Amino acid sequence: MNLRRTDCEWRTPPAPTGGAVAAFALRAARFSRAFTLVEMILAIGVAAIVLIAVNAVLFTTLHLREVATNAVDAATPLDQTVAFLRRDLQCLVPPTNGTSKFLSGSFRTGQVNSLGVPEPVAIEMFTATAALSQSAPWADIQRVSYELKNATDASGRRDLYRSVTRNLLAISATPEVADQLMLSGVESIKFMGFDGSRWQDKWDTSDVSTLNTNLPLAVRVEILLAGNLNATDPIQLVVPIDAQSRTNMVLASATGN
Q: Whole-prediction pTM value?
């Protein structure tokens, strides 16, 4: 029997077309890029550790920022008070020596009575720290006093106020006094004048019967905040006084001026 070669040959499948090859390659690429379950678990674990570390750093930073903000907010009123005190004391005008001269004023410390202020003040001084403006057309010399007043709320604490009288030429038993809240929660405030040898608690240049009718050489301020009852650690400020009169005696000319 004669067999033809074509009958005995195995038939091979037809060659794939271009579209089939592309689809097969795409499926193979998809399978080759997939992650296994172990790889997914490891990736999630690493991401969780990184997020925990970032979260801890973030909350630590926020806490430090809050602490720093609270410290700055608490120190701002005290810094402002110290700045006002230093400026007022550095700009003291010469004393009156018991007379009523212009461009001068008395300097008194030690719980004295100041006109227009209902409570005794720790210090009363005349200082050239006023600023001229259209709404306040007075001189740059103003009367300033610092005193403690009871807080307006029911906390029972005392607050430090700065009282200012601008219109010094007005003849009135009740002058216009502007109160400025400087510091809250103050236990005590004390002013002392240095006479060259020792610090004195009381100083009054308006009293001609005393020896200290001139300005002190320096003024020391001690502020004790409420809650800090350790009197050995008050806030201290020492300000040298440059303005000094040539004499502490009252001189009269032939005309009586």
A: 0.65
In the block, tokens 């040539």 appear at: 246
Please provide the distance, in angstroms rounded to a whole number, between the alpha carbons at the two ends of the chain: 162
248-126-158-192 Cα dihedral, nearest 10 degrees: -20
pLDDT digits (tens, 9 = 90+) for 185-231: 898 999 999 988 999 999 988 877 777 778 899 999 999 988 765 55
Backbone angles phi, psi at 209, to 5 degrees: -80, -10
Q: Are 129 and 91 in contact (CB under 8 A)?
A: yes
Cα gap 202→86, rounded to integer Å: 19
Query: 156 Cβ partners below 8 Å, 6+ apart?
Result: 150
d(CA 255, CA 57): 80
Residue 7, C-beta contacts closer than 8 angstroms, at least 6 positions apart: none
Helices and strands in the chain, H and E counts:
3, 10
Residues 246, 257: Cα–Cα separation, whole Å: 17
Across the beta sheet with 142-150, the strand order is 178-183, 158-165, 142-150, 121-127, 107-112, 203-204
For the chain, give every domain's residue range.
82-240
- Residue with the two structure tokens 């905040």: 225
